[in-house]
Backbone:
């Protein structure tokens, strides 16, 4: 194997996909008056930085090469618990050291070339850092972030202005650091961040995403123990966690790995959770205590400007983008593309390529230049929300979410398995469904994109017509004109089941004239969480199920109840002559846990009075 091939093995993809410098045209991801980079390459430094309790955290610093002596520059801080950098085995280490993965070398190259320092820190209890992790996103981890920022601003190369960013866990940690209200922290760009740990990751719709948590927990335990063998053949080229330069004999690294053995096991902790406010005696806290939304007052009071970035096919985290925008007032910008987690792929079924052509780094640069360098580049005058409409394959803008021109259109489910625009045309009655527990959204779904070992190739939903044969489907007549929906579709079911519990999945789909079926979006709910809460957890644009213990309403076998199931947000254009379909399932095998009591049959009531219906956020143009 050539050295070139070996190098390519280590090319990181998270957040990358940067094209050549874009032309000077007006669209998102393009810098008006785009300038050439000021620097080429970077210098690498690493340190152990002591926290207030003397725990040492490992920090990598990347400065622009040939930075003028005495010049001070702004800093982008990336907190991570996935190892800030790794060391390749000899002889690759002679040419490439360190190897960057979580924050790609491409990203570091880009921002250092425009006069930013990049700082990546291993969170307490991970990577080469000392200490033990008592929980993910813990108060101690947040406080450590404040110590790191204070250390950064004391460095001779820092001008006193700091931004935080990251992807997934790193994005969430980056936003939580805002709660410290450190005056040096001017901006935060969370990409694929988690706003609600319970609702957006652990229990979407109150349904446990156990398989993901199991894989994620296994991955992080392996990394915390410096075990890269779980990553397969590539691991043969990896020596392990990159030690700090001054730790030449790896003595501190070995001590750190010993302390990691006591880290909290997230998958074991999941077993004690059913509600968002379930108290874990080991943690002396509930899941909500580790969520961004629980810190929203502190984050707002910081005054730090936030730019949320995500994708329509990014697990349930598209909801994190919209809920964060509605709930935290210093969210200045939101960008939602046709992407999965990271993003890694363009997941639009209409895309000609899975490759992401949008220049995410350029869009970040515009925001950072404005807030950290004071460059008047006009970004503050642009609409707050930029989103991509699937099918139409265009970018749209709005100052509100949902867009002001959204209208909620009600379509009725009929007992003949059709969807009717008028209640007059509905056939009253019931439609039974024998639950097929092999039903699944496949190995390349949005849920598989959220962590590396759970992913089986690019995010992609193949033609679902065969899968729909396992489901209960209602289909509209062909549309007489193209119809765009942008926002949060909601399915309201008059529902009963022959067991004391259930998991109910609803899929919004697009049926083409050739009968092929395209996935649009989905939602899920356990009947015991059906209550719509008046005491909202945070501001939403859809019916709010609190998932609190006090709001649980036990479901009894055979009972007919009203389920209001909010689907994940989407912007999608149905073409003329296509049909709208709602498909109902009792499982998504491989992605979500089954209830203890599993129904054999669902029954859906249809009719003009107390019937079932679909509410679509239709946008007029």
Residues:
């Amino acid at each position: 194997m050539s050295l070139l091939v070996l190098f390519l093995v280590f090319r990181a993809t998270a957040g990358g996909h940067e094209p050549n410098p874009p032309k000077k045209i007006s669209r998102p991801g393009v810098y008006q008056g785009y300038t050439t980079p000021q620097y080429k390459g970077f210098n690498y430094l690493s340190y152990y930085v002591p926290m207030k309790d003397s725990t040492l955290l490992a920090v990598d610093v990347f400065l622009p090469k040939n930075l003028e002596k005495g010049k001070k520059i702004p800093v982008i801080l990336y907190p991570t618990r996935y190892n800030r950098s790794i060391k390749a085995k000899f002889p690759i280490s002679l040419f490439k050291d360190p190897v960057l993965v979580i924050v790609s070398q491409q990203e570091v190259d880009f921002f250092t070339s425009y006069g930013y320092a990049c700082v990546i820190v291993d969170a307490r209890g991970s990577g080469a850092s000392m200490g033990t992790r008592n929980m993910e996103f813990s108060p101690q981890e947040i406080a450590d972030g404040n110590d790191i920022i204070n250390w950064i601003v004391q460095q001779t190369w820092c001008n006193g202005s700091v931004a935080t960013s990251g992807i997934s866990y790193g994005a969430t940690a980056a936003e939580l650091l805002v709660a410290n209200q450190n005056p040096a922290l001017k901006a935060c760009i969370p990409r694929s961040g988690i706003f609600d740990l319970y609702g957006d990751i652990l229990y979407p719709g109150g349904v446990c995403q156990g398989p993901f948590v199991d894989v994620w927990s296994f991955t992080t335990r392996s990394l915390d123990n410096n075990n890269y063998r779980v990553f397969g053949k590539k691991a043969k080229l990896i020596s392990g966690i990159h030690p700090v330069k001054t730790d030449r004999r790896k003595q501190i690294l070995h001590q750190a790995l010993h302390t990691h053995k006591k880290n909290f096991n997230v998958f074991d902790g999941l077993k004690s959770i059913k509600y968002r406010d379930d108290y874990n005696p080991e943690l002396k806290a509930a899941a909500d205590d580790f969520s961004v939304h629980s810190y929203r007052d502190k984050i707002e009071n910081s005054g730090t400007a936030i730019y949320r970035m995500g994708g329509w096919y990014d697990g349930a985290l598209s909801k994190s983008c919209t809920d964060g925008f509605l709930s935290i007032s210093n969210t200045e910008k939101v960008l939602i593309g046709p992407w999965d987690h990271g993003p890694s792929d363009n997941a639009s079924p209409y895309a000609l390529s899975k490759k992401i052509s949008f220049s995410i780094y350029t869009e970040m640069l515009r925001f950072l230049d404005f807030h950290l360098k004071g460059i008047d580049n006009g970004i503050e005058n642009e609409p707050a929300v930029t989103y991509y409409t699937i099918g139409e394959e265009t970018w749209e803008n709005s100052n509100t979410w949902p867009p002001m021109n959204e209208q909620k259109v009600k379509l009725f489910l009929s007992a003949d398995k059709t969807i009717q625009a008028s209640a007059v045309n509905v056939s009253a009655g019931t439609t039974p469904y024998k639950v097929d527990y092999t039903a699944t959204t496949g190995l390349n779904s949005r849920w598989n994109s959220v962590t590396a070992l759970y992913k089986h190739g690019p995010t992609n939903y193949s033609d679902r017509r065969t899968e729909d044969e396992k489901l209960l489907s209602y289909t509209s007549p062909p549309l007489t004109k193209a119809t765009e929906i942008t926002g949060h579709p909601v399915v309201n079911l008059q529902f009963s089941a022959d067991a004391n519990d259930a998991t109910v999945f609803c899929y919004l789909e697009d049926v083409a004239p050739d009968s092929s079926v395209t996935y649009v979006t989905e939602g899920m709910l356990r009947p015991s969480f059906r209550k719509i809460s008046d005491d909202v957890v945070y501001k939403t644009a859809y019916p709010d199920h609190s998932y609190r213990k006090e709001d649980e309403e036990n479901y009894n076998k055979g009972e007919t109840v009203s389920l209001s199931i909010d689907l994940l947000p989407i912007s999608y254009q149905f073409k003329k002559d296509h049909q709208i379909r709602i498909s109902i399932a009792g499982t998504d095998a491989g992605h979500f846990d089954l209830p203890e009591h599993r129904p054999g049959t669902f029954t859906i009531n249809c009719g003009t009075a107390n019937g079932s219906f679909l509410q679509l956020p239709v946008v007029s143009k």
Q: What stands out?
A: The domain at 406-619 is CATH 2.60.120.260 (Jelly Rolls). The longest strand covers residues 158-167. Confidence is low (pLDDT under 50) at residues 1-26. The radius of gyration is 25 Å.
